[in-house]
Amino acid sequence: MKEDIRSPVMTRAEAASYLRISVRTLHAMLARGELPPPIRMGRRTLFHRQQLDDWLQARIDAAPSPTCHAAGRGSRRGRPRKTPPEPLPR
């Protein structure tokens, strides 16, 4: 039976889906203390939807504004592109 999407609590799988992360990432974030603590009901681990909403909003509010990367300095991530070697003078 499918649970109501507006339920005030969510399972681990539902919380991961809600946050658009994998269950494995959810477990890692819990271990690092990055998520609101879940509640235990017997063997089930449940998350309060409102706590996840508040946590997510706090992360959105703390994120740098999109204009920070407009200048182009430091906005690239990953490996630098290889530039071709300059030709030798003749």
Account of the protein in words:
With 90 residues, this protein is an alpha+beta fold. It has a domain at 11-63. It is built from three helices and three strands; from the N terminus they run βααββα. The chain has helices at residues 12-19, 23-31, 49-62, and strands spanning 9-10, 39-41, 44-48. It has a three-stranded antiparallel sheet. A hairpin with a 2-residue loop joins strand 2 (39-41) and strand 3. It is elongated. The model has no long low-confidence stretch (mean pLDDT 84).
Overall pLDDT: 84
**Separation of the first and last Cα atoms:** 77 Å
Number of strands: 3
The unreliable regions are none
Tally of contiguous helical segments: 3
What fraction of the residues are assigned to beta strands by DSSP?
5-15%
Helix content: 25-40%
Large-scale geometry: elongated
Q: How can the largest sheet be summarized?
A: 3 strands, antiparallel
Spatial order of strands in the largest sheet: 1-3-2
Order of helices and strands: EHHEEH
What structural category do the secondary elements indicate?
alpha+beta
Specify Rg, calculated over alpha carbons. 21 Å
Labels describing this entry:
elongated; alpha+beta; single chain
List the helices and strands and how they pair.
Elements: E1 9-10, H1 12-19, H2 23-31, E2 39-41, E3 44-48, H3 49-62
Antiparallel strand pairs: 1-3, 2-3
